[in-house]
């Protein structure tokens, strides 16, 4: 085996072992799923209580960094976050599982994206995330991981480092393009749905203590979930993920883009064979543009399916 082939396979293995898989929200879209909001919310609130207990046990009073470190032990990706691991394993959280060979990405080759085009990954079934229902929304389980992980990175950049929301989302866009699947070395899917999850994850993390107003305005303040009482952390309100999950995370509404026009055309052709298109509902996409106002251009795809630009993608958007 040549060194170049070993290098490519190594990069692909790294991509699939570290980063989340893709989701198919087109196939079997009308198939009913049990609402798992109450189960997921209960697990999340239990995780908040455990995190508070762990932070208080350190005996350092209401030290924010100690609390956030404890929370990150529960709210993180599938490699280290106890909450998402619990959700993924729980049979009571109903999930629609679609294998790569039956999915909207079934035509992928290594030229579209090594992560999904490389046969061994398809055989091991590690390229696709399940779909679950939270309230009125169906989302990929990967979107919770984005909320917990990338959402915390956005939160840190925007609030803790005081760099502002634009620099936070720009960093997330760079990550999606070059490290999280949006190129041929990854899965070959630049997911605007992931960007929507990242952004709402930032909002969720800000609401934990709600020391600052929501990025969308004071009327969107939902927290705090945790407050300092008698020099100890305490839960003062329960989290509800229905306040964060919306159509910005639905990849059949907030369409993805792809590394090349050829791959984009291949994706469109598969949708046509399935008798659908993207967005599946233009009105719902328009509602997201209204909801996110000045931030919409950074996370809502109003262009439709196409080739992602690796520079200047958002330059001329209003």
In whole angstroms, how far apart are the ends? 49 Å
How helix-rich are the residues, as a percent range?
40-55%
Q: Rough shape?
A: globular
Count of helix runs:
11
Q: In total, how many beta strands?
A: 4
Helix/strand class: mainly alpha
| Structural domain count | 1
Q: Return residue spans where pLDDT drops below 50 for at least 5 consecutive residues.
A: 1-19
Largest sheet: 2 strands, antiparallel
| Topology pattern, helix = H, strand = E | HHHHHHEEHHHEEHH
What is the C-alpha radius of gyration, as a whole number of Å?
19 Å
Features:
318 residues; mainly alpha; 44% helix
SSE blueprint:
Layout: H1 3-18, H2 37-56, H3 64-72, H4 82-89, H5 114-117, H6 119-124, E1 131-134, E2 137-140, H7 141-160, H8 165-178, H9 192-209, E3 226-229, E4 232-235, H10 261-274, H11 282-292
Antiparallel strand pairs: 1-2, 3-4
Helix pairs in contact: 2-3, 2-4, 7-8, 7-9, 8-9
